[in-house]
Amino acid sequence: MHTSYLSITTTLMLILQTVGIRAFASPFSLRRLSSLATTSSSSKVNHSSISRTTAAFASPVVLPENITDSTIFTTKQSNPASSSLSSSTIILAQDSQFIKSLPDKRQYRAITLPNSLTVLLTSDSNTDVEAASVHVRAGHFDDPANRAGLAHFHEHMLFLGTEKYPKEEEYEGFLGRNGGMSNAYTDMEDTNYYFNVAPLDHDEDQEDHGGEEKVVGGTSSALSGALDRFAQFFISPLFDESMLERELRAVNSEYLNGRTSDNWRNFQLLKHGANHDHPFSKFGCGNYNTLTDGGDPLAKKEGEDTMDFGGGSSPREALIDFWTNKYHAGNLRLCVIGRASLDDLQRTVEKSFGSVRSPPPNFVANGIADQIKAGILKVPNEGESHLRDENGDFVFQTEHFTYAPNVAFGPDHLGLIREVVPLVESRSLKIFSAVPPLDDPVLRGSRPFSVLSHLVGHESPGSLHHLLMEEGWINSLSSGTGISSTDFCLITISIALTPKGLRERDQVLAKTWQWLSLIKDSVANDEHGLIEQYHNELRKITETSFKYREMGDPTDFCSAAAERLFDYEPSKILVGSAEYGEYDAEVARAFLNRMTPQNSLVVVTAPELEKEEQEKSKSSASDGLWLSEERYGGKYRQVKISDSLAASWNHPTDIDARLRLPGLNEFIPEDLSLRCDDEESLATFDPSFDYRKEHPKLLLDNPKLRMWHKLDRTFRVPKASIRLQLTSPNVYRSPRSITLNRLFQKVLSDDLNSFVYDAAVAGCSYRVSCVPSAYRLSVSGYSEKLPHLLDVVTNRIASLIEEMKEGEEAHPALAATFSKAKENLLRQTKNYIFDSPYETGSYNLRVLLETPVWHVNDYIAEMEGPDADAEPLTLKECAEAAEQCLFGRSKAVSLCIGNINEKEAKEVAEVIQENFLDKRPLLEDETPRFRALKLPDRAEAIKIFGTDVGEYEVPVVYEALAHSESEENNSVELLMQTGSSYELGYEGLAIQELISSMAYNSAFNQLRTKEQLGYIVSAFVKKINGGGNAFCVLVQSSSTLPPQLEERCLRWVELFRQELEEMTDDRIVMEANAVKANLLEKDIKLSEEISSVWGEILSTMPHSEHFKEPMFDRLDRFADVLTIDKDGGEEKEDSESSIKTGADLKQKVLEFYDKFLMPDSPERRVVSSRVYNRKAKDLFYENTSKPGFISSYDDARRLKQYLSTVPTAPYW
Question: Kind of pairing, strands 697-701 and 705-711?
Fold first, then answer.
């Protein structure tokens, strides 16, 4: 697979979003992640920032005095009517100068404030979310030698108060009250801060705006207030001495979380193996010891609980120095998006960010755009050649420039084979090759790496991927950018090995280098211009993708655009890397010459490597000594690649005859016309109607299939999506049946690669997935090619099943694929024991509260052990199980949406019925339904466990012990059930959502910030399959045991009740408006509408025919519950709620809280899920015999026999 890889650090950030880390973004901090959504996959709740990580802080460079730019003119000259705008602000690009996609209706302006801060203003009158981001060209590469992790720690500290807003919760609290959130991340050479708010319709008091006017021009009070608070990070942070200790411990906790992660271990190993004089080698996360220059968090002074900074020194002066040197206007970029006009946004930014310090004299930021403009980097004029040295070779100006003379990966650090032992069972082979930065002026236009990556990762017959898969040696292969910085880049070939592939890794490596040699030869001797044709195909695909690129999430956009301001001239910020130049064969050859064994690092990862009895291979590092990396404890050994092995790889004498370059792509779309512009569609078009409010039409309704259809008239892109769910009671009938169906999904995925890979490259995709109640199939992308793709996928499903039914002997290649699928599924299933403690705790709650549910051990037993040996899973049995679910009796629902008209949708329905719905439909009672179980209240718990549990505040405790000896964390998830969705209804569910929205910040501030219990803290609503609901408090800690964590969570529940009581009615209304704004947020691109609509349709599937109509306006109804008439007391028409005033709303909140969450409520149903690290195992074992304590799945199964189920009827 060709991937536009993120850097390893960015990939890690995205992974870590699942574990509540502010520094690296967390869904726990995303207030918009509503439990009321039908699906959590919608991109509009995902505010992860994607960083290219190629920026760096450079020493000030003298700006040539004669630099001019004809595109620069002052605001006063260009906007004489806008007299209130600063005449000193320079406009770099007006809206008409920006290169935009067709769907992009936003307006843009790039400016430079008088203090030299460059800003991108974005006006979107239809946005429901306003956002901003500041990107700083400084990261952990800039950490001082004696304070590793300072940039990361500095990022934490900026959130904890400024001179203007000294209260540490002021910024987050203001955002929360305005329906928003914030986050930040620290990367190698960059730090990014971002926030969003909802432009609400409520008024706030003057005090909440710091005594300033609530609206600056036409900018919303939410955005102007947030920008004012945000700007103070870069004007006057406090770095309060009293907050240092606890934030040091927070960073230390984050570090300890990473010690059990193979991702963090592998990244640090890569840094550890680099030149230690280059900043890439630095320890970026930092910990208590490094940040205090030698302190120990456990150190104590005689007679006192702790010692100041653990015996080390305060990092405050280092923080101030870092901020002073790096955080000035020349080293920042700001992007803002709001509903207001560009002029109003400019006024707001001038007012809020105008006081940021100016840069030092003649400062030039270390960004490609600025350095080209300053003449530091030379770009040839049209018709001129790139710079060359005295030998005629290209000069890559950015390579080894920023940190010269230090080179991150020189000859001593490359030409190596490194073996690594992972924590979890995984096997991989990676080849890292050092190349110039990919945005170097020589490479930026022709982009040779795009073609190289495309060919290396190709999956068609004849490709390396296809050959290695056919041999059963690999599970996947991809190529992309592994590490990207301003002065070097590591491009990566990443291969996931099978156990067989590990044993045959000499062959895997030999074939890989043969494939690279074939590509090199083709580039060097491209007589027929094939490589250029590949380049032109990729350019066309990229250009088409940009042409129809829809407006993205405002927060993501701001975060990415603020970074791009360093590397692109403003008018090209939007198009960015989508702008392709002509193919340059000479540049391609020069780039490919870097792909040699001597210039590469080969990393093999597998648990078997530490076993001495393993057969030695040519590519083994067994002659090296096992070592341990000091920060994360990664175990590794390495040796130099021998000259003979390097020669055989670099110049293979033979190339496998099965290897051949791919043909040209037949899936590239040609017909990009819009169905909504057809004559028939235009005749019914109403320009005054908002077609986002148009619900899908039920096109077909029979006992076998319900087909929904909606023609897109809103987003106007030539794309469509076809979704299908085939509901079957056979998928989850037993652990064996679900295991067989999951295996078929894997076999199908492997098999279809060669059929549909070109479609994926060209912008079309398919997915066939197995969920407990059904199979789901989707095809999406450019509408012209979707019918063909659907035909390919459905036909291959049928033919594959027939081939598999013929057995292993008839199809040995399929048998090998099936065997590999079993190995992979077993490995993935067994690796669950290495999940983080909080994930294990959450899983235990699921198996306790849902039925039917099979335990993970049941799946393992089907694939491994005496029962599996006696009755093994077979290829034929797998096919029969899949056939029964896909082509047997089922109930189907489908959606055709996008650039597809009614006639075409009916043709899709015919294909579905002909291929899948030959049998009679399911009976109503055969539809699979899952049930949520009701926890015992205190009286019921006493009846089940005895009177002793009456003494416990939490009568049911589910305990587990972490599997890994290296796991240092404990966790607790306190779950309090709040009733079924049916019983709560619209009003109860809306109140529950409001409480959850308010609770998150309170829990975080109390349990994480003040009490320092752990780095991962959250309070949230949990949906239980089968109609159940619960409110949860979660903490993961490396310093506190589960019983103490549980006790603090319980005390917070009581404390938060007091906070709610003390809130004014107006404050409650404000919080409700924030939730309401999130609920009413419009879909901003077609994929979001598809996700929303399909989620509503699927929500009807478990229910009887009485509830089969999707509630497409469901979120509007929730919002209506939370709508308070400003004039007070008027009856709401067609409302689901009788709440009329703020007082009514507050009373409902308190009644809900008292009934379900407070300890003195007879109706409280609560369970605590504890997970202990191995150091606390004695305490775990002490509790196993106590009443009310569950310590195994057998215990849980026994308890479930006493529990009743909640109603499954929907609340609508």
Answer: antiparallel
Quick: pLDDT tens for 191-205.
999 999 998 754 444
Asked if 821 and 784 touch (Cβ cutoff 8 Å), the reply is no
Q: 34-62 burial string, b = 16+ CB within 10 Å, else e?
A: bbbbbeeebbbbbbbbbbbbbbbbbeebe
* Nearest residue to 764 (alpha-carbon basis) of 788, 798, 797, 795: 788
DSSP state of 64: P
Q: Which ranges of the chain have pLDDT less than 50?
A: 3-33, 39-83, 202-215
Tally the C-alpha atoms within 13 A of residue 512's C-alpha that lie toward its C-beta. 28
Q: Which 3 state secondary structure label does DSSP give 664?
A: coil
Yes or no: say if 608 and 502 are a contact pair by the CB < 8 Å rule: yes
Which residue has 């009895």 as its token pair?
Answer: 613
d(CA 823, CA 743): 10
Indicate the burial class of 720 (C-beta count within 10 angstroms; 0-12, 13-18, 19 or more). buried
Give the per-residue SS3 of 92-105: EECHHHCCCCCCCC
Which amino acid is located at 228 in the chain? D
Strands (E), 829-949: 850-851, 891-898, 931-932
Rounded to the nearest 5°, which phi and psi values hold at 352?
-80, -40
Token pair recorded at residue 324: 């002073």
Distance CA 262, CA 629 (A): 13
Nearest C-alpha neighbor of 764 from the set 785, 749, 739, 734: 785
Query: What DSSP line would sit under 1127-1163, residue for residue?
Result: T--PPPTT-S----SHHHHHHHHHHHHHHHTSTT-TT
423, 692, 1094 from 1098: Cα distances, Å: 38, 19, 6
Name the burial class of residue 407, with classes exposed (0-12), middle (13-18) and buried (19+) by CB atoms within 10 angstroms of its CB.
Answer: buried
Smallest CA-to-CA distance from 280 within 290, 269, 288 is with 269
Q: 917 is written with which tokens?
A: 């719905």
b/e per residue 477-498 (b: at least 16 CB within 10 A)? bbbbbbbbbbbbbbbbbbbbbb
Tokens of residue 255, six digits: 């570090």
Q: What's 394's DSSP letter?
A: B
Beta strand residue intervals within 199-302, DSSP E: none
pLDDT, tens digit, 9 for 90 and up, residues 744-778: 999 999 999 878 899 999 999 999 999 999 999 99
Region of residue 375 (phi > 0: left; psi between -120 and 50: alpha; otherwise: beta): left
> 615, 423 in Cβ contact below 8 A?
no
Q: Is 12 exposed, middle or buried (0-12, 13-18, 19+ CB in 10 A)?
A: buried
